[in-house]
Amino acid sequence: MPSISFHIVNLGCKVNRVEADSMHAALIAQGASYAPEEAADLVIVNTCTVTAEADKKARKAVHHALAANPLADVVVTGCAAAISADAFKAMSPRVRVVGKAQLEGELASEVRTPQLRIGDGFRTRVGLKVQDGCDHACTYCIVHVARGKARSSRFEDIVREARAYFQAGVKEIVLTGIDIGAYCHEHRGITELVRVLLEEADRACATGDAPARIRISSIEPRSIDDGLIEILASSNGRLCRHLHVPMQSGSSKVLREMDRPYSAQEYRSLVRKLRADVPSIALSTDVIVGFPGESDAEFGETCDLVKDCGFMRLHVFPYSRRAGTPAAERPDQVASETKKDRAAILRHIGSDLARRDLESRKGSSEYCLVEGAMCLSESYHEIEAPAGCKPGDLVRMTL
Question: Among candidates 98, 90, 85, 80, which has minimal Cα distance to 323?
């Protein structure tokens, strides 16, 4: 590749963040240099399409790149590009729409430089994508169309990459995917993958060093089995005792209409089992408010379940009408003001729960990953880093 400068604009989920990091690392490995958007030869916009608002942000980002840099080539990739390629192409002759798989192929390099993730502006936690696509079809979501069917990376390739990161000194690997619990390669699932990666972390750990750890970014309720719970309970935090388990609603009626494969009671039972088997576990979740037809009583059920589960972090999303999804066609859309009010109520509950969870951990001890002035605890709380530590250190701290 000729010596060029590039800039990446990343939008959307943690999987997109990992993919953007991989693009960055591949370009650096091939001799390119990173530059501000207005000065780069190439601007890559990695888009999201999960909501109508995400689509709007994607279009805005491309318009901004074209205006900020009248000489750059603009490559648009990601989920919005997969759904609306022609709309992006029509913006300018300088726009090239490239599918994620094609772009990854163009940027592919045999050079493995895991140090880039620590020393070239990447965060101290390294995301490792193990799975892509989704076989579900939640009625509010179009990601399964944009990403395609669920597919898993080769077991040996994941282990090899993780080994390189551990040997480079990485102390936390975050496993990511669109439906990470669907991971399966040659009959080996996510639980077996975690077991093997922890063994690799053991082998790479120098005597006296804090052991490296694994974190699961997000996992669907039905994918949490007894084997995974056993590792959470027995690995002494090396598989972080924190899970992000999307709930979406606390109403069984709304969950059925979302085509989510569990009831509110099944979700409650899973949380109770997790807390019984892994007492120190921290749980976070996603909730959609104002789904079409959601009544005040059903929203109340969501508030009650959120409180009962005691989440340490709550991501609240007012329902966004996404064209091309069954929910968008429903006539019983909830008023925007009602969605706004419900989101505010639930966010207030979430803030209170986060404070309570952190207070409940005061005096306990956890390994915390230093990320600068702050560090990230095993339980996913941000706290002030101790003096004298450098980014990437994993230190035992009293909360």
Answer: 80
CB-hemisphere CA count at 13 Å for 221? 22
Give the span between the Cα atoms of 264 and 14, in whole angstroms. 26
Residue 31 corresponds to which amino acid? G
* pLDDT one-digit tens code per residue, 214-263: 999 999 999 999 999 999 999 999 999 999 999 999 999 999 999 999 99
Segment 330-350, tens digit of pLDDT: 999 999 999 999 999 999 999
- Residue 370's φ and ψ, nearest 5 degrees, are -75, 130
The more confident residue out of 114 and 231 is: 231
Write out the DSSP string of 86-128: HHHHTT-TTEEE--HHHHHHHH--S---TTHHHHSS--SSEEE
Q: Are 271 and 311 in contact (CB under 8 A)?
A: no
Higher pLDDT residue, 207 or 388?
388
- Inter-helix orientation angle 226-234/190-204, to 10°: 20
Query: Do 285 and 320 form a contact (C-beta atoms < 8 A)?
Result: no
> What is the C-alpha separation between 93 and 71, in angstroms, rounded?
12
Closest CA to 48 of 24, 71, 98, 82: 82
- Cα separation of 288 and 286, whole Å? 7
Are the beta carbons of 381 and 312 closer than 8 angstroms? yes
